[in-house]
Design brief:
Elements lengths: L1 E6 L5 H12 L2 E3 L9 H6 L1 H26 L3 E4 L2 H14 L5 H15 L7 E6 L2 H11 L9 H16 L5 E6 L9 H15 L4
Parallel strand pairs: 1-3, 1-4, 2-3, 4-5
Helix pairs in contact: 3-4, 3-5, 4-5, 4-7
GO molecular function: kinase activity
Protein name: Deoxyadenosine/deoxycytidine kinase
InterPro entries: DCK/DGK, Deoxyribonucleoside_kinase, DNK_dom, P-loop_NTPase
Length: 204
């Protein structure tokens, strides 16, 4: 089984992926941010490095999905291949940080890859408003994230909402995390588990 956790920067994807992996005994697949050779450069000069960053993420995510399907294991994935195209690349193009030529080139590669991957059996969307995202980003203190603007986060949030409203690839579970603290409060984590278990019962 392939479960994926999606949501904006700072929504809590990696933390929840880790906790669910331990609870269910699933193998976790994480976004490769620590070894990404373009991330620091991108936040320093978005227009210069946006295409290289997006192509790197796309290739990395395609490799992940291929490995997940070939492993035959129950896997929970931090972020999906769809977000790279429908959220981040599209947003960069609208902000004129990714040229139309590069965006079209990127989309042609994405469409080719999409034909070879399957959607997650369950997509879990962590919905959070911008103040929650800012608080979470500040708390984890990653240097390269310090310059992320509220406007950028707001644009991404709008993109996520639009994508989720039109998501037809598979089963979807939306969890509002603004008033949840699933790390510190066991009852909040329990609430999320109840929601997931209800969805999983329909998958078997």
């Amino acid at each position: 089984m392939h479960i994926a956790v999606t949501g904006n920067i700072g929504a809590g994807k990696t933390t929840l992926t880790t906790m669910l992996s331990k609870h269910y005994g699933w193998e976790a697949q994480f976004e490769d941010v620590d070894h990404n050779p373009y991330l620091d450069d991108f936040y320093g000069d978005m227009s210069k490095w946006s295409f290289a960053l997006q192509i790197y993420f796309l290739g990395s995510r395609f490799r992940q999905v291929k490995e997940i399907r070939e492993s035959g294991k129950n896997v929970i994935q931090d972020r999906t291949i769809y977000e790279d195209a429908h959220i981040f690349a599209e947003n960069l193009a609208e902000m004129s940080l990714l040229s139309e030529r590069d965006f079209n080139n990127y989309l042609s590669v994405f469409q080719l890859m999409k034909d070879f991957v399957s959607a997650p059996d369950l997509l879990i969307y962590l919905r959070a408003d911008v103040p929650t995202l800012v608080r979470q980003i500040s708390k984890r203190g990653r240097e390269y994230e310090a310059g992320i603007s509220i406007d950028y986060l707001s644009k991404l949030n709008n993109k996520y909402q639009n994508w989720i409203e039109n998501y037809k690839e598979g089963k979807l579970l939306i969890i509002d995390v603004d008033n949840l603290d699933f790390v510190e409060k066991q009852e909040d984590f329990g609430y999320i588990l109840e929601r997931i278990d209800a969805e999983l019962n329909g998958l078997f």
